[in-house]
Design goal:
539 residues; alpha/beta; Rossmann fold; GMP Synthetase, Chain A, domain 3; nine-stranded mixed beta sheet; seven-stranded mixed beta sheet; 27 strands; globular; AMP-bd_C_sf; CoA-ligase activity; peroxisome; ligase; ANL_N_sf
Length: 539
């Protein structure tokens, strides 16, 4: 390791992770331990399932998957909104050593095509509403995955068949891994190129979540509510905690944020997790007078940057609860910097430094680096935050991940940050060109490709115009061909793009025509300067 860079590395004492036999064996034993506790509650119907019930369902599903030819390291996909049933094949994948790679049914078909092509699943569990798009995708890819419908079907296997009694269920032994650094689950993320990647999270990384965060006692002690489905790292990362503590996972098929106050009261929610956009929406009009949140012990939110003012306001909406926000990445199996609500000093400094995302957590090495010179930086110097840990992913599925690690083995997060003298971190900006609209990653490259295809466009880039609620509103910045000047309107190009993309990818900030792009020293279009000039009214 470079000695010059070594002096500014921040190290937090590591944590002891017991010698476990993999996620499947761990979950199996924890379901047995908590068998009389409520594991799932459907908040739409009030129906509940115990850990003993989900264990039986998971074993039966595991045996059914094996009988259909699913073997260790085969990939299965779950395409479903959040439901009691969708979690069972997820658990079962760990029980038999398969690897799940879930997708959100709300994704545009072009994204689903790319993701399924990337992982080539052997089996797809799908809700009835998404059967048609899955059929079309498999046909386009000439892929022969088995379809299992979570619901009614006259054409395919029904998931209900997987839950029938099996003569071997009482003899079932879960799959044991020999190397905890093997892939346990794939969670999709997007890299700086904008193309979704399959992040391979390890058994060690996922099980490490059971021991990393001291606030787990607060979050998982009773019932927990999150609206995230299994496409998101938050839903995946919360599962080990639910299993370890025997938490009651409240399940909602939809997301009516205005009803969340009533849900907290009705189901005595102890731990609440929301993404940043959901938090903003829920607290839009403050806490209702009739709200009873006395059961709420901790509120966790994150996934996108928040301002100092927003953090202070959120705290005012939940004055009795511990507020928990921080910084994380899918590649790091979740949270990597946060406040520790079990530490009185952190609780005090959380209020004194509301713009900070917290302090480093155990099990990681951290450094701030000048991305141009690779020089390691000290306190109050802005640079790229890089991390090193055994909890990190083992790579991207079937993709080269060499360039995301530096020469010292640190993962390049792509985010600009700094830390102060107390080692509290502050996130400043993103190096990555990805935009984020209401927690959805948007690829500027994808939108630019569509814009470039219009016969009137000479050159273009897509930038994000900051929005106080949504995050980024994409804007197309365009130089027209001379032949099209004066004949093509901004609205025409905006409609041209919006008609070809999903709801969250639309050009909400419109189109801006310009005559010339600012360039970098190497002659490339400067996205940073273009965005700055647009926001300052210079273009």
């Amino acid at each position: 390791m470079n000695e010059e860079n070594n002096k500014n590395i921040i190290s937090v004492p590591s944590i002891l992770v017991p010698k476990l036999k993999g996620v499947g064996s761990t979950f199996f034993n924890q379901m047995l331990e908590h068998k009389t506790k409520i594991a799932h509650t459907d908040i739409d119907t009030g129906r509940t399932e115990t850990y003993e019930c989900i264990l039986q369902k998971t074993i039966r599903t595991s045996l059914a998957m094996r009988s259909k030819g699913i073997k260790p390291n085969d990939v299965i996909t779950i395409c479903s909104h959040t439901s009691m049933d969708c979690f069972i094949p997820f658990y079962a994948s760990f029980f038999i050593g398969a690897i799940s790679a879930s997708i959100d049914p709300k994704l545009p078909q072009s994204d689903i095509v790319h993701l399924l092509k990337l992982v080539s699943p052997k089996m797809i569990f799908v809700i009835p509403e998404s059967i048609e798009v899955i059929e079309e995708t498999l046909q386009e890819l000439n892929m022969n995955a088995q379809i299992v419908v979570i619901g009614k079907t006259n054409k395919y296997l029904s998931f209900s068949e997987f839950l029938l009694p099996h003569p071997e269920e009482n003899k079932f032994i879960p799959y044991e891994v020999t190397n905890l650094k093997d892939t346990s689950v794939i969670v999709f993320s997007s890299g700086s190129t904008g193309l979704p990647k399959g992040v391979c999270l390890t058994h060690y990384g996922l099980l490490g979540l059971l021991y990393q965060l001291r606030y787990a006692d607060l979050l998982f002690e009773t019932s927990i509510l999150t609206y995230a489905n299994l496409y998101w790292i938050s839903a995946v990362a919360f599962t080990p905690g639910c299993m370890k503590y025997g938490a009651n996972r409240l399940i909602a098929s939809g997301c009516d944020l205005h009803e969340t106050w009533a849900i907290i009261k009705k189901y005595k929610v102890g731990g609440l997790f929301l993404n940043t956009f959901q938090m903003i929406e829920m607290c839009k009009n403050g806490r209702p007078e009739e709200a009873d949140i006395s059961s709420l012990r901790i509120v966790v939110y994150g996934g996108a940057p928040t301002t100092k003012e927003q953090n202070i306001y959120f705290q005012s909406c939940f004055p009795e609860a511990v507020m928990q926000y921080g910084y994380g990445q899918t590649e790091a199996t979740g949270t990597i910097i946060t406040f520790d609500p079990m530490d009185p000093r952190d609780l005090k400094l959380m209020k004194e430094k509301p713009a900070s995302v917290g302090r480093p957590i155990p099990g990681y090495l951290y450094k701030i680096v000048d991305p141009d010179t690779e020089k390691s930086l000290g306190p109050n110097q802005e640079g790229e935050i890089r991390i090193k840990s055994d909890f990190l992913m083992n790579g991207y599925y079937k993709m080269d991940s060499f360039d995301v690690w530096d020469s010292d083995g640190f993962f390049k997060t792509g985010d600009i940050a700094y830390y102060d003298e107390d080692y509290f971190f502050f996130i400043v900006d993103r190096i990555k060109e990805l935009l984020k609209y209401q927690m959805w990653h948007i690829s500027p490259v994808k939108l630019e490709t569509i814009l470039h295809a219009h016969p009137a466009v000479h050159a273009c880039i897509v930038i994000g115009v900051p929005h106080e609620i949504d995050g980024d509103h994409p804007m197309g910045v365009v130089i027209l061909k001379d032949s099209a000047a004066g004949t093509v309107k901004e609205e025409e190009l905006q409609k041209y793009v919006d008609d070809q993309v999903g709801y969250h990818q639309k050009l909400r900030a419109g189109i801006r025509f310009i005559k010339k792009f600012p360039l970098t020293a190497s002659g490339k279009i400067s996205r940073v300067q273009t965005k700055r000039d647009i926001l300052e009214g210079k273009l």
